[in-house]
Every structure is written in C-alpha cells, then in structure tokens.
Isopentenyl phosphate kinase
Amino acid sequence: MTAVLKLGGSVITEKDEPETVDTAALSAAASAIAESAVGEDIVVVHGGGSFGHHHAADYGVSTTAGTHDVDGVQAIHGAMCRLNAAVVDELTGQGVPAVPIHPFSAATRDADSDLSLPTAQVTTLLDEGFVPVLHGDLVAHAGAGATVLSGDELVVELAPAVDADRVGVCSTVPGVLDEDGTVIDRIETFEAVASALGGSDATDVSGGMAGKVRALLALSAPAVVFGPDALPAFLAGESPGTTIAGDDDDW
Ligand SMILES: Nc1ncnc2c1ncn2[C@@H]1O[C@H](COP(=O)(O)OP(=O)(O)OP(=O)(O)O)[C@@H](O)[C@H]1O
Ligand SMILES: C=C(C)CCOP(=O)(O)O
C-alpha cells in the first residue's frame, strides 16, 4: 500500500503572514503520519502557503507566466527550500525517515508547457525505506524562464510513478464545497462543479481549488480532498471529504 499525500501550504503555514510556519498544524500533520499504518510507504508533497506564493506574486510568476530574473528565482525557490527544511525537520523529529527532494533541480516544462519530472530518485528512496518530501517549486520552462510548479501537479506526476493506491490532498477546507457550502461527496467532471469552484482565499498563484480539481481529475485512481482534522482517517484507509474520480487512460 503506497500513498501520495499533499499537505496544503495553507494548512502548514500562516498563509497571510509571509514565511511563517503554522507550527501546531505542521506538528499535528507530522504526528498523524508518524502514527499511521502506512508507515514508510508514503510520499509527501507540500504546497507553498506563505513561503512560495507571496514571492511568486511579487515577481509576477505563476504556472504559466515565467521569469528570467535570478533574484526572483532565488526568492521563490529559496523560500520553498526553507519551508521544505521545516517540514522535513518536523517529520524526522517525530521519527519519520523523511528526506528532501527539490523539484527545481530535476523537472522541466517544454515549449508546449508539458511537464517532465524524473521520478527514479523518488521510487528508489521509497524502496530504500525513506519518506521522500517534495514541494511546490519553480521549474525550468523552455521559452518562459522559470514558472511555478504546483504541489498539485507533482501529486499527479508522482501517483502513477510510485504506483500509488491512495492519493490524498489535505487542505484547509473539509472538502470541495458546493455553492451552499456543503462538502461535495464525489466529483467526476470539472463542468459539474465549475460554478462552485473559486481560486484561493489567500495569495495563490497556482489556481486554488479550481486548479486542484482540474489537476486531480487527470488521475484515473480516485483522489480525496479533505481537511486537517481528517488526515488520520485518510491515513487509516478511509476516504473523508470529497472523492475526485476522473478517467485518465494513462493510469
Ligand atoms: N468550491 C470550493 N470548495 C473548497 N474550497 C474552495 C472552493 N473554491 C475556492 N476554494 C478555496 O480554495 C482554497 C484551497 O486551495 P489552496 O490552493 O489555497 O489550498 P492549499 O493547496 O491547501 O494551499 P497551497 O496552494 O498553498 O498548497 C480554500 O481555502 C478556499 O479558499
Ligand atoms: C508558489 C510556489 C513556488 C509553489 C506552489 O505550490 P502549491 O502551493 O502546491 O500550488
């Protein structure tokens, strides 16, 4: 049983306070992982929260708008590396054999914006008993300089690469909400829920909930979107929140 879990940046950081970790939330998430039965068969991805998104917005960088400004690259990638170090530290402090992987060092987008992410280091580390921890980052982008690579995109790339049985996206909301604020149980097409989907309450250059749903629909195996309180339930094999079940033939 292998799981890919994304910890939303909005969960583990104070999203409106630049470069501030939500230490209580990060500690609770790390403890849920440390205590879960998935043990070491888990790949963790985390988002940007107040580390990546503020800098990306300052430099006008998004998943589609790139930069050639080396100061911008350093600000955005550097902030994400600092957050990644905090996540890895918290996990290892709680006994999880977590190791960092920085996607900017490996991934590319071609001139058609198609993403290529080498994953042999992830699968090898997993096989060797480590818990790889990747993060939303920048990515070298042909013709655009460097663009944002969201953690949600990483989840979509990693799930088939590690043959994941379970994909979970832990955000601040208890699931994807309909127009009345009720958690939608299951989503099979973007069109069915498009009118309820917005961006993010906080600074977010990668599309908020709408971007998340679009990215997760690209998986053929179901992904679940849930809130922090439901993380232990997800790790115990339940499907709390919203199940997003697209149909990608590549799975
Ligand atoms: N229909 C909806 N249901 C649930 N959340 C929604 C909806 N529409 C918009 N949102 C917003 O999407 C946010 C979640 O997306 P966001 O990208 O901010 O989360 P994250 O992945 O946890 O953080 P990060 O992108 O930093 O990793 C929610 O906090 C909410 O503000
Ligand atoms: C803003 C940066 C650099 C990372 C974005 O990752 P996300 O929060 O998963 O969308």
Q: What stands out?
A: The pocket of adenosine-5'-triphosphate (ligand 1) is lined by residues 8-11, 47-49, 151, 171-173, 176-177, 196-198, 200-202, 204, 206, 208-209, 212 (CB under 6 Å). The mean pLDDT is 92.
